[in-house]
Amino acid sequence: MNSSDLLAPINIETCRIPNRLFAAPMAGISDLPFRSILKSFGAGLTFSEMISAEAFVRGHQKTRGILRRAKGETPFAVQIFGGNPVAMAETARRLEAEGLCDLIDINAGCPVKKVMRGGAGAALLGDRERFFEIVKRVVRAVSLPVTVKLRACRTPGDLDGLEVIPVLFDLGARGVFLHARCVSWNFTHPPEWAWIERAACLGRPLIGNGGIFAPEDAVAMISSTGCDGVMIARGYLGNPWIFRQVCQLVETGKWTPVSLGERFETMRRHLEMSLDVFGERQGILRMRKHLSWYVKGLAGNAGFRRRMNSLTRSGEVFSEIDRYFESLKEREH
User: Fold this and answer.
1) How far apart are CA 249 and CA 253, in angstroms?
2) Among residues 15, 110, 227, 247, which one is catalytic?
3) CA distances from 48 to 16, 25, 44, 190, 321 (A)
4) 110 an active-site residue?
5) What's the pLDDT tens digit per position in 256-298?
6) Distance from C-alpha of 27 to C-alpha of 37, rounded to nearest angstrom
7) Which one of 3.20.20.70, 2.40.290.10, 3.40.50.150, 3.40.50.360 gives the CATH number of domain 3-252?
8) Domain definitions of the chain by residue range
9) How much of the chain, in percent, has pLDDT values that exceed 70?
10) In 92-165, which ranges are E strands?
11) CATH for 260-328?
């Protein structure tokens, strides 16, 4: 694949995606306000935070709230997790019946121990019979396209994640998102993009994930591995304009750093949406981590983060953002 392919549309069965830049689902992070921000900067497909199939079929209201999509958020994918094939299939069926998404993704890569203890996430790599039964039942339950997100392997050397890819496509999966790390590795371990290259020969479309922190990384991944698109996760934290910058790099050979003014305008816009969706208390609590990410690398950011963590009123938060912005502008002169 060439870097120019990043800007070409891609169809995952009935789901048409305007480009090949995917905003990864992240628990506690990819909520409605932030997805709206990511979409505004050029993300082709956004995902809900992963939802528990067991909680969804029981009618858990918090889980329901996760499924709200932003205005204009099309296409929109929902990622589900669980170890019960019946609950996973029923969740998928209801998602389609209620028109809640355009694509359903099965999480088979989450390494969080709490998730794996329930036989879900990356634990499915160690129980192929149940894994395949989940995929088979979910695919049969819906007419929407079903994809699978997984890690390359449980431990270095076994590559059991790659081994299952042809079977997933045979069972009806319409795409695979491959995180090029082992389940046993933490996020500080460099990803092995060579595994994405090997996986691209096992089934298509194959979307690569892992290690995209700059526009050049996205171009390098698709050029060197031949994957069909790139999924950005931690690289978009406090940096949603990375999607726009990838597009700029592909189109012109260079990209424009975000200005201080736009950075702070995005912070305010994000905060406003968070308050609107979650209310004052939860809206502020959810924004604290985002605000910390937005100011990473800026002068005096430690004091700003410390003050933000003590504020509980929206007016105070906006005032502190404005105060910090003015102080940074003074430093520029």
Assistant:
1) 5
2) 110
3) 17, 6, 14, 26, 28
4) yes
5) 999 999 999 999 999 999 999 999 999 999 999 999 999 999 9
6) 16
7) 3.20.20.70
8) 3-252, 260-328
9) 100
10) 103-108, 146-153
11) 1.10.1200.80
